[in-house]
Structures are given as structure tokens and as C-alpha cells.
Amino acid sequence: MRHLVILGGSDGTVSAFRAARRLGLATICVDMRPDAPGVAEADEFLHLSTRDVPAVADALRGRDGLAGLLAPGSDINLPSLVELARLLGLPCGLTDATLRASTDKLHFREVCERLGLPGPRYCADDHWADDHWADDADPALRPPLPVIVKPVDSGSSRGITICREPGELPAAIAHAKEVSPSGRAVIEELLTGEDLCAEAMLQDGRIALLGLSRRVTAPPAVVAVGHDMAPADDVLEKEVVRQLELVCGDLGYRDGPLNVDLFVDGGQVTLVEMGARIGGNGLGEALGLMHGVDTVEATVRLAVGERPDLTPARRGPAHVRVLRAPSEGTLVSIDGLESLPDGAEVVVVARPGDHVVPYTECRAKLGYVVDREPADLDALIRVDVR
Description:
This protein is of the alpha+beta class. It has four domains: 90 residues, Rossmann fold; 70 residues, 2-Layer Sandwich (Dna Ligase, domain 1), CATH 3.30.1490; 123 residues, 2-Layer Sandwich (D-amino Acid Aminotransferase, Chain A, domain 1), CATH 3.30.470; 66 residues, no CATH class. The strands form five sheets. It has an eight-stranded antiparallel β-sheet, with helices on both faces. Helix 1 packs across helix 10. The radius of gyration is 20 Å and the shape is globular.
């Protein structure tokens, strides 16, 4: 039997494990956490850090039937994916340039700037010293307040702070650097307009499938509690496609999934950051539901060297809603899932007895629901925490 190695076992990997099973592939999950959601979905578990590439390579080298590698739902494992693919001689569609743009938000800004695409004013955290701009910092690079401070290389909405006063910057920078694997942060002008997410599939350097979704949030938190994906205005979609194909062409990325954050203000599209992988929070599944194509299966096929059929069968809305805890405590039960509409895809990653916390970052979710209709989970689902 052919085996697919999936790096990481977070909630964003669950759909990939299930898609691989539907395609007749055995799966190997690599993760440091034996209780990670993906472990229960896998046929085999390697209790190793995904960042310990030599150890993972040693555990896999020489095994029969290794067909491919996948790192869905998060950018954090993409560097290991590229290195392991080279060491083990497995398919990989990521170029070095694509990898860097996906894992370094500062570099992605530089790519967009070089290509002449719109963007916020931004700078690295070293332009700010204690309670003022560094003396050697170029005034032209100082983003005006309000700004958003975030790690350059961390996902899941971790370490993000919006600052409206100069005095808020030191704590925000320290927080971002604390969760950044490289200890770096970026300070960006806070964009206005519609906060959208683009989920796409590339084939032969062209956008074959695109879904633009609007984030559903619960202010003042910035983390999305849902996404509403639907066909957009033709002019908007064409501009998003133009910019995405321009960036991917520059990076040499031709085939595979793409997840991009962007803002639209007065018709101007501004790309914020990208990841050359399936989006988390059910966005990969939502794109498939919107077009009638199983995009997660398509991504698995690409990972094992196959060419998927991306011909759309429909074009309609898709919605994602996040299951979340009302308070910190021990999860007793999640009741009411049976009341969801027929055809809704439900992924539950928390179990009774788990310690749960309020949903202030993506990794705190209890699961998610994907459907053609927007579910009112607060009315349908009861999460009991004690």
C-alpha cells in the first residue's frame, strides 16, 4: 500500500487524512503531541517533532510505499516538507521562493512591493526601540498609527495586536516576538476595507478555482469565528486572479493549493500574506463545496505526484462556522450536532475531558462545520464546559 506522510496533526490536517483514506492511501502522522486531532485519523503515528528533519528522515528512509508528503492547514511545517521531499526523493511543488514567501511575512511584503502591487507601509520590529522609533530608522518606512503588529513567521492568529497609541507598541512587539520561531515581528499600517480570504487551486500556473470569503468575527477579537465564501463581482475576482498569478509566477509556484489574506478598499485589492497550502478552519473544504470539486482530495493527489481534475461542477456559496468554548474549563459535551442540516461536513477535534479555553486564537477551536447554508451554531449547538 502507498503511504502519505502528513506533517502535523492539528485540526487543519483532519480533512487531509480523511481524503487520503478515500483515495486508498495509508497515512503516517508526524507530531510531537500524541493527543493531536490528526493522530486519531492516521494509520500510523511518528512521535517526533516535525522540525526535527533528520529524525523524521531516518524514521522514513528505506520504507516501502512512501508516495508523498503533505503539510496542510499551517505554514509552520512547510520548511520541513521541502527539506524532507529532497532527502527522500518525494514529489514537492514548492520552490524555495514560494517557501520563503509563505513563511516570512516581511519577505512577502517585499515581493509584492517589487512587483508593483499595492501594500501597507511596513517595517521590521528593529525600527522601534523601547518607546520611540530607532534613530537610524528611515522615516519613510514608519507606518502611521494605527498599526498591526504580528510575528513574521507564525500562524493561527497568534501574537497579533492592533496598536492605536505609541505606548502600546513595546508590549505588542514583545508578544509577537515571543511566539515567532525566529523571534522577529513586523509592524504594518492597519488596512481598512473588507477583510477577505482567498482560497485557490493553481494548475499549470493559472488559478483554476477561486473562492473569496468574508471573515465572521466577534469584536474586539481579531480571530475569525467563521467564513462566508461566495461568488464575487467579476471585476474583483479578475483583479484577485491577476495579482495571485503575478505573485505565483514570480515565485515559480505552478500547481497546488493557495491561501491568501487580502483587503479590498474602494476597488483596490491589497494582498497581505500567503501560504502555499490548504487553508485551515475548513477553508479548503469550503472551496471544494463552492465549486463541486473535492479540493482536499486534489491536493492529496498532487502530493503523491498525480494530476487532479479541477473542472468545476457548480458555483455557489459555502460557509464555515467554528465550534468554540464559552469559557475556560473541562469540556463535558458538545450537544446538538445532529440538528445540523444533512450534507453539512462536521469536524470535531475536542473530546470530553479536554481542557478548553475561549476562542481567542485558531488553535483553541473545538472543531468546525462546513455547509452551503450559514449555520447559527450558537442557537443549534450547546457546548457544556465545567
